[in-house]
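Module 6 notes. Inverse folding takes a fixed backbone as the condition and produces residue identities as the prediction. Think of it as a translation problem where the source language is geometry and the target language is the twenty amino acids. Below is one complete input and output pair. Work through it position by position during the lab.
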Protein backbone atom coordinates (compact mmCIF):
# COMPACT_ATOMS: atom_id res chain seq x y z
CA UNK A 1 0.00 0.00 0.00
CA UNK A 2 1.42 3.40 -1.10
CA UNK A 3 0.89 6.42 1.19
CA UNK A 4 0.63 9.89 -0.36
CA UNK A 5 1.09 13.28 1.27
CA UNK A 6 3.69 15.77 2.43
CA UNK A 7 6.06 15.36 5.31
CA UNK A 8 6.29 17.91 8.07
CA UNK A 9 9.76 18.95 6.85
CA UNK A 10 8.46 19.65 3.33
CA UNK A 11 5.62 21.79 4.69
CA UNK A 12 8.00 23.73 6.94
CA UNK A 13 10.36 24.43 4.01
CA UNK A 14 7.46 25.84 1.98
CA UNK A 15 6.35 28.05 4.90
CA UNK A 16 9.89 29.36 5.39
CA UNK A 17 10.19 30.19 1.68
CA UNK A 18 6.84 32.02 1.75
CA UNK A 19 7.98 33.97 4.83
CA UNK A 20 11.18 35.06 3.10
CA UNK A 21 9.26 36.18 0.02
CA UNK A 22 6.80 38.14 2.17
CA UNK A 23 9.63 39.80 4.11
CA UNK A 24 11.13 41.03 0.83
CA UNK A 25 7.86 42.04 -0.87
CA UNK A 26 6.06 43.92 1.93
CA UNK A 27 8.57 46.82 2.29
CA UNK A 28 8.63 47.24 -1.49
CA UNK A 29 4.84 47.36 -1.50
CA UNK A 30 4.73 50.14 1.11
CA UNK A 31 7.34 52.09 -0.86
CA UNK A 32 5.20 51.89 -3.98
CA UNK A 33 2.11 53.02 -2.07
CA UNK A 34 3.90 56.16 -0.85
CA UNK A 35 5.26 56.86 -4.31
CA UNK A 36 1.78 56.50 -5.84
CA UNK A 37 0.35 58.95 -3.29
CA UNK A 38 3.11 61.46 -4.12
CA UNK A 39 2.54 61.06 -7.86
CA UNK A 40 -0.07 63.84 -7.81
CA UNK A 41 2.65 66.44 -7.16
CA UNK A 42 4.19 66.38 -10.65
CA UNK A 43 0.98 66.89 -12.66
CA UNK A 44 -0.28 69.55 -10.22
CA UNK A 45 2.94 71.57 -10.54
CA UNK A 46 3.08 70.96 -14.30
CA UNK A 47 -0.45 72.32 -14.71
CA UNK A 48 0.55 75.43 -12.76
CA UNK A 49 3.60 75.95 -14.99
CA UNK A 50 1.48 75.56 -18.13
CA UNK A 51 -1.16 78.07 -16.98
CA UNK A 52 1.42 80.56 -15.71
CA UNK A 53 3.35 80.42 -19.00
CA UNK A 54 0.12 81.09 -20.91
CA UNK A 55 -0.66 84.05 -18.65
CA UNK A 56 2.84 85.49 -19.05
CA UNK A 57 2.60 85.09 -22.83
CA UNK A 58 -0.69 86.99 -22.87
CA UNK A 59 0.26 89.85 -20.54
CA UNK A 60 4.05 90.00 -20.92
CA UNK A 61 4.33 92.08 -17.76
CA UNK A 62 4.07 89.83 -14.74
CA UNK A 63 3.00 86.61 -13.16
CA UNK A 64 -0.56 86.04 -12.07
CA UNK A 65 -1.83 84.54 -8.88
CA UNK A 66 -3.80 81.30 -9.00
CA UNK A 67 -7.11 83.05 -9.55
CA UNK A 68 -5.80 85.18 -12.40
CA UNK A 69 -4.30 82.26 -14.31
CA UNK A 70 -7.29 79.98 -13.69
CA UNK A 71 -5.47 77.46 -11.50
CA UNK A 72 -7.49 75.75 -8.79
CA UNK A 73 -5.92 73.07 -6.62
CA UNK A 74 -7.87 71.88 -3.63
CA UNK A 75 -6.15 70.06 -0.81
CA UNK A 76 -6.45 66.28 -0.95
CA UNK A 77 -6.27 63.63 1.73
CA UNK A 78 -2.51 63.37 1.12
CA UNK A 79 -1.44 66.97 0.38
CA UNK A 80 -2.27 70.61 1.10
CA UNK A 81 -1.54 73.10 -1.67
CA UNK A 82 -0.54 76.73 -1.12
CA UNK A 83 0.14 79.83 -3.16
CA UNK A 84 2.94 81.59 -1.37
CA UNK A 85 1.79 81.30 2.23
CA UNK A 86 -1.94 81.01 1.56
CA UNK A 87 -3.70 77.65 1.48
CA UNK A 88 -5.42 76.65 -1.80
CA UNK A 89 -4.40 79.81 -3.64
CA UNK A 90 -6.98 82.11 -2.06
CA UNK A 91 -5.29 85.48 -2.68
CA UNK A 92 -6.40 88.94 -3.65
CA UNK A 93 -5.62 88.58 -7.39
CA UNK A 94 -2.59 90.81 -7.52
CA UNK A 95 0.10 90.42 -10.16
CA UNK A 96 3.79 90.27 -9.27
CA UNK A 97 6.13 91.76 -11.85
CA UNK A 98 8.69 89.41 -13.36
CA UNK A 99 11.46 91.86 -12.54
CA UNK A 100 10.68 91.41 -8.84
CA UNK A 101 13.00 88.40 -8.79
CA UNK A 102 12.61 84.95 -7.32
CA UNK A 103 9.20 84.25 -5.80
CA UNK A 104 7.64 81.19 -4.21
CA UNK A 105 4.58 80.74 -6.36
CA UNK A 106 3.41 77.20 -5.60
CA UNK A 107 3.83 74.91 -2.61
CA UNK A 108 2.59 71.46 -1.59
CA UNK A 109 2.92 69.85 1.84
CA UNK A 110 2.16 66.24 2.73
CA UNK A 111 -0.46 65.83 5.44
CA UNK A 112 0.76 62.47 6.77
CA UNK A 113 4.01 60.57 6.67
CA UNK A 114 4.87 58.88 3.38
CA UNK A 115 7.42 56.23 4.35
CA UNK A 116 10.55 58.13 5.43
CA UNK A 117 9.11 61.49 4.31
CA UNK A 118 7.66 62.85 7.55
CA UNK A 119 4.44 64.84 7.60
CA UNK A 120 4.97 68.46 6.64
CA UNK A 121 7.53 67.80 3.91
CA UNK A 122 7.33 70.48 1.23
CA UNK A 123 7.59 70.70 -2.52
CA UNK A 124 8.12 74.32 -3.57
CA UNK A 125 8.02 75.84 -7.03
CA UNK A 126 9.90 79.13 -7.33
CA UNK A 127 9.39 81.45 -10.28
CA UNK A 128 11.72 84.18 -11.51
CA UNK A 129 12.14 86.40 -14.53
CA UNK A 130 14.04 84.82 -17.41
CA UNK A 131 16.85 87.31 -17.95
CA UNK A 132 17.91 85.78 -21.28
CA UNK A 133 14.43 86.07 -22.79
CA UNK A 134 12.01 88.89 -22.11
CA UNK A 135 8.45 88.03 -21.19
CA UNK A 136 9.07 84.53 -19.90
CA UNK A 137 9.74 82.84 -16.58
CA UNK A 138 12.09 80.25 -15.15
CA UNK A 139 10.83 77.70 -12.64
CA UNK A 140 12.85 75.97 -9.96
CA UNK A 141 11.57 72.99 -7.98
CA UNK A 142 12.81 72.60 -4.39
CA UNK A 143 12.07 69.67 -2.06
CA UNK A 144 12.48 69.98 1.70
CA UNK A 145 14.34 66.72 2.30
CA UNK A 146 16.02 63.85 0.48
CA UNK A 147 13.51 61.44 2.02
CA UNK A 148 10.73 63.30 0.20
CA UNK A 149 12.78 63.77 -2.97
CA UNK A 150 12.92 60.00 -3.45
CA UNK A 151 9.14 59.98 -3.98
CA UNK A 152 9.22 62.58 -6.78
CA UNK A 153 12.67 62.45 -8.40
CA UNK A 154 11.83 64.58 -11.45
CA UNK A 155 10.26 67.47 -9.48
CA UNK A 156 13.56 69.37 -9.27
CA UNK A 157 13.69 69.36 -13.09
CA UNK A 158 10.70 71.67 -13.38
CA UNK A 159 12.00 74.47 -15.57
CA UNK A 160 10.73 76.16 -18.67
CA UNK A 161 11.16 73.83 -21.60
CA UNK A 162 12.56 70.87 -19.61
CA UNK A 163 9.49 69.57 -17.82
CA UNK A 164 6.66 67.62 -19.39
CA UNK A 165 3.27 68.05 -17.74
CA UNK A 166 2.49 64.85 -15.87
CA UNK A 167 6.01 63.38 -15.96
CA UNK A 168 7.23 62.04 -12.68
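Target side of the pair, the amino acids:
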Amino acid sequence: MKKQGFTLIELMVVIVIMGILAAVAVPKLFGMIAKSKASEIGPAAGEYVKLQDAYISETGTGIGDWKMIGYKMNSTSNFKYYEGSTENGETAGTSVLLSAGKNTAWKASNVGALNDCVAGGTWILNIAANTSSGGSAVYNGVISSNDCAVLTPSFKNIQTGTYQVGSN
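Reference fact for the lab report: The first helix runs from residue 8 to 38.
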